[in-house]
Amino acid sequence: MQKVLLQKVIPPLLLLAGVLSLALWYWQGSQTMPALFPAGRSTTLLLIDPGHGGEDGGAVSVSGEKESDINLSIALKCDQIAGLMGIPVELLRTEDSSLASPEAESLREKKREDLARRVEMVNSAQQAVLLSIHQNSFPDSSYSGAQVFYRPTEESEAWALHTQELLRQVVNPDNRRQAKEIPSDIYLMSHISCPAILVECGFLSHAGEAQLLLEEPYQCRLSVAIIGAYLSLPLPAGEAEQRYSSAQNTN
Ligand SMILES: [Zn+2]
Description:
single chain; alpha/beta; Aminopeptidase; six-stranded mixed sheet; binds zinc ion
């Protein structure tokens, strides 16, 4: 009983500790924070896309875990942290299900409809940005480390570079992976029009990293780094000034 209670209490505490330490780290490191947070991010909707879901489990870890479950677990933590920090946030799915209609029959049809629905949700949102959460897999099981991909826009690239750097500092100090432009054949990313990044949090084909990706504290650290990067990302100059002055006017 006591063990169950501890298991329930520890993850939120870790989460809170992570957010507070990141906030303190950021506060010490920048003089411009009041202009960017919360005023800068409070008017943009952060859409979080937990990749795959339902019958489409995505990649499978060496111990048989589905990518879709890990994506959802990390996305839910990102959602909680973002909500706690006062950022408008919405998840594209909140459970292990596909967004396809019940009429879709084959897996191929379900995947196509699911992606079309995600595109529709992103493109119909006002002033939104997209954060897509996935896990990597590769035939060579020695590959490891988080990597961030971005849509080919200036804002997406800046967001991805900053997220990659924070993931390195907070999660994997030895990770030398660089943020990269997303391949044009990724359906969701090539059919939306807002700034977007896709975070491959780690490799399910690497035994050690796959185990870490299942653990709550590791998922918390990933989520803190991802949302911390979003919060501390400098806005384009004109936009930051405009949002800061409008926030000042409402005080
Ligand atoms: Zn995936």
